[in-house]
Design brief:
The complex is a heterodimer of chains A (303) and B (297). Chain A has 303 residues and is mainly α. Chain A is built from twelve helices and two strands, in the order ααααβααααβαααα. The radius of gyration of chain B is 19 Å and the shape is globular. The N and C termini of chain B lie far apart (38 Å). In chain B, a hairpin with a 2-residue loop joins strand 1 and strand 2. The chains are: A mainly alpha (303), B mainly alpha (297). The interface between A and B is large, with 46 and 45 residues.
């Protein structure tokens, strides 16, 4: 067991990081907002925490908290104006936000610019491991499980079903949207701070558009109706490149070097045939044994 | 800040702006007709360029022949994209964001296939594909190739405007954009119009990709991401779904880019583009040139 962990420790920890990221986008998707700035929030958390532990000699946990708060703060300042937008306009605005953060990091020399930022180059090492990652994941998952049925969760659900109807019912739509956006950014900031201390090296390329798309794929493939779906998607899609190693080379085309083809096909199949994600499959298998769950007859979520 | 560069840079802005405008027209056409943000458009831009490069370098075709063939292939890929990614969602009446996500999926597949079939490296057209001729006008140096690119993209834009304003196909496209239900009631074959729209939009995207690849003489699977966000900024600036808006905003983005090089530094040019995007989204979400038209918004 411990041999297996040592051989695959980075991959195992990465699964946990990606699960946290999937939860961060799940919360905005759960009120039908497509935000593509989670990678940028992750970057803010990563660079903030890395600067604190490396330049100011903070311990890991205070730095993680500070990274999360910084990411949440930026999202709040930005979130207030852009929450007026919806649908594709919100998606484009958050995409632009992500790109501005990436360009900013490239141009700040103190952050290592496009070369990246190396942690733990001196004699003091502050690292995170799978234990920290999964501890935090459990904590966040607990938070999400407590959220279910709460005022906030019901409000988000109402906004997802019909924003105008929710507003008519007296739900403060803007407040809850900003709250969801900021919560997502805080969660992504935590993931970033841990990621930085897991890899000991971060660069702007780690937090680009590709990362934002990956995180979206996790949540959508797993399913956006329940937080467990997001975690499931992250686990499956992170292990996918390992799973396709068995695919043979056909006619000189080494298809296993292009895992994005597989993730594209899976994402497409899910959005076309299982709009509520793979979790619906797990739940319907469950239904054979247990009484029907409410979620099965749920109308198609957006997205 | 180097004002001596200004005239040269403004000219460069017109050249690159024309390519951006051509590229962004594909986004705006599809959004206008279907209310879909097609994020696979940048992948088609890249595939158009890659196919033209392959025809010229591996098959030995002349670029004059490879250009229209690659443009047509890009258009056909657009039809494939619609059939694979959007048709089923349309029939199901799925939410707008589902179509956006499914276009991301197709984009992943297209880019991955391009890496698989044509390798991941940076490609160049063979020497002598286009003449290396320069004119010096005062302090400005003009490359013949850039003039050709500008003429081609202006011709395509004029052609599109004529098509949309003056032909029966254009009338059908405008009718579906206005209201698919009413158009269907009046006997417009909606599915056919959608197919034609995807062909035109993707052919323009492919043409933009080829021109971009010629201008930089560099083609690679990741090239779509260099223009993707610029294209999105352009359609926001120009007003979602507006064709003249996208053309004007394309040149505007080209100008913002070169002016930020002159006054700021080349590193920050993309940041300026996004700051412009934010300001427009916050202050005037219907776009600078957009009247609140159609169903967009």
């Amino acid at each position: 067991m411990s041999e297996f962990y040592n051989a695959n420790s980075f991959l195992i920890s990465l699964v946990g990081i990606n699960a946290i990221m999937a939860l961060s986008i799940y919360i905005t998707l759960s009120c039908a907002m497509l935000s593509l700035s989670n990678a940028a929030s992750m970057a803010i958390g990563a660079y903030t925490a890395a600067l604190l532990t490396q330049q100011l000699a903070w311990a890991l946990w205070p730095a993680v908290v500070a990274g999360a708060l910084m990411s949440g703060l930026v999202a709040l300042v930005l979130g207030l104006p852009i929450m007026r937008l919806s649908g594709v306009f919100l998606a484009i605005a958050t995409l632009g936000f992500g790109e501005v953060i990436r360009i900013a990091i490239v141009n700040i020399d103190a952050l290592g610019g496009s070369e990246g930022f190396r942690l733990n180059s001196g004699d003091r090492t502050i690292e995170a491991s799978g234990w920290e990652v999964y501890g935090v994941l459990l904590l966040i998952a607990y938070f999400f499980s407590r959220l279910k049925g709460s005022r906030m969760s019901l409000a988000l659900q109402a906004i997802r079903e019909d924003e105008n109807a929710a507003r008519t019912m007296g739900i403060n739509v803007t407040f809850y949207k900003v709250a969801a956006y900021v919560t997502g950014a805080i969660v992504a900031g935590i993931a970033g701070a841990l990621y930085a201390h897991l890899r000991s090296f971060i660069s702007p390329g780690d937090f680009g558009f590709q990362r934002a798309v990956d995180v979206l794929v996790f949540a959508v493939v797993g399913g956006t109706l329940a937080w467990r779906g997001a975690i499931m998607g992250a686990v499956l899609m992170t292990l996918l490149p390992e799973a396709i190693r068995v695919v043979p080379i056909v006619g000189g085309f080494n298809i296993k070097d292009q895992p994005e083809i597989f993730s594209g096909v899976i994402l497409l199949a899910v959005i076309l045939f299982l709009p509520n994600g793979l979790l619906t499959v797990a739940l319907s298998l469950n239904r054979i044994r247990r009484p029907a769950r409410k979620v099965i007859g749920h109308k198609e979520a957006s997205p | 800040m180097n004002l001596a560069q200004l005239p040269q840079q403004l000219l460069n802005g017109i050249f690159s702006g024309s390519i951006y405008a051509l590229f962004a027209l594909g986004y705006t056409l599809i959004f206008g007709v279907l209310d879909i943000l097609n994020l696979a458009h940048a992948a088609i831009f890249m595939l158009g360029a890659t196919v033209s490069w392959w025809l010229v370098s591996a098959q030995g075709w002349s670029l004059l022949l490879a250009f229209p063939v690659a443009v047509a292939i890009a258009g056909l890929l657009g039809i494939v994209l619609d059939r694979v990614a959007f048709l089923r969602l349309r029939q199901r009446g799925a939410p707008q964001l589902s179509a956006l996500i499914s276009s991301i999926a197709v984009s992943l597949i297209f880019v991955g296939l391009s890496r698989l079939l044509f390798k991941d490296d940076r490609k160049q057209f063979p020497d002598g594909t286009f003449p290396q001729v320069y004119f010096d006008i005062g302090s400005i140096r003009v490359r013949l190739l850039d003039v050709v690119i500008l003429v081609v993209s202006l011709a395509l834009m004029l052609g599109l405007t004529w098509l949309v304003q003056r032909t029966s196909l254009g009338r059908a496209i405008r009718a579906v954009a206005e209201s698919p239900k009413a158009a269907a009631l009046l006997g417009v074959n909606i599915e056919r119009v959608i197919m034609q729209t995807f062909f035109i939009a993707s052919a323009l995207g492919g043409a933009a990709g080829i021109l971009y690849g010629m201008s930089l003489n560099s083609i690679e699977p990741g090239m779509g991401s260099q223009v993707e966000l610029k294209g999105l900024s352009i359609i926001i600036l120009g007003g979602m779904g507006s064709i003249p808006g996208a053309m004007l905003a394309g040149f505007l983005i080209g100008m913002i880019e070169v002016l930020s090089v002159v006054f700021g530094g080349s590193q920050l040019k993309d940041a300026f583009v996004f700051v412009a995007l934010f300001l427009v989204l916050l202050v005037r979400p219907q776009g600078i040139f957009g009247l609140k038209q159609g169903r967009a918004g």
